[in-house]
Structure to design on (100 residues):
């Protein structure tokens, strides 16, 4: 099933994260398990929530993006938490638009 743009991306804004035509998020999903990615997203969300400079509109937007992606990951059954994220998407036949 083809999904809209990946929850952590914004069309046109991720070009600085492209390496060899691949998105950094796509690469992260190949190298981390679901459990690791959940932890990463939680830590990133906290980082933007608790910045010393205070939560501004850009930080608040980033928090909502991490929360949306966390919802996707946390809906997955526990038995896939030790599998690579990209493998789980493939297993579920989910194809994200990485905005590349």
């Amino acid at each position: 099933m083809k999904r809209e743009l990946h929850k952590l991306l914004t069309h046109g804004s991720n070009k600085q994260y492209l390496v060899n035509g691949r998105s950094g998020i796509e690469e992260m999903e190949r190298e981390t398990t679901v459990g690791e990615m959940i932890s990463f997203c939680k830590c990133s969300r906290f980082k933007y929530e608790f910045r010393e400079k205070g939560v501004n509109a850009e930080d608040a937007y980033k928090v909502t993006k991490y929360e949306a992606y966390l919802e996707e990951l946390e809906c997955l059954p526990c038995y896939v938490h030790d599998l690579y994220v990209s493998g789980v998407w493939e297993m579920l036949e989910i194809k994200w638009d990485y905005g590349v």
Notes: Residues 48 and 61 are 9 Å apart (CA to CA).
